[in-house]
Amino acid sequence: MISNYYTKTQTYTRTEIDDKLGLKLNASIINDYYTKLYIDDLISNYYTKTQTYTRTEINDKLDLKLNASIINDYYNKLYIDDLISQYYNKTQTYTITEIDDKLALKLNASDINDYYNKLYIDSLISKYYLKTETYNQT
Predict the structure, then answer these.
(1) Has residue 138 been placed in a domain?
(2) Distance from the CA of 98 to the CA of which of 12, 40, 80, 130 falls in 20 to 30 A?
(3) 68-121 pLDDT, tens per residue?
């Protein structure tokens, strides 16, 4: 029966098989290679290029940073905050002009010589009666 046989298109010739096997690796050579699992494990200890910066990228980023040798010319934030806390905020104080304007509205010490203080006036008044407290003799 013919159905028990393959057609030529369904099989390879010896030459075709030898050619295909020539493209394959010999089993004796496989010992010089790593398995995919081993390579994956080995590579897992490394970073990919997307996870790291190139030398140029690092240098560019470092160029934007302050050199450590220059840092001695600067104060740190904690020092500045402490220093600033010892001063008043401008909203808490008056300017010289504001103080002068407010003082101009007050009496000078030399002007007060023509006035009596409250204690003196009270002692003078205590010697007299109010008109409503007395009987008019007219």
Answers:
(1) no
(2) 80
(3) 777 777 788 888 888 888 888 888 888 889 988 888 888 776 767 767 788 888
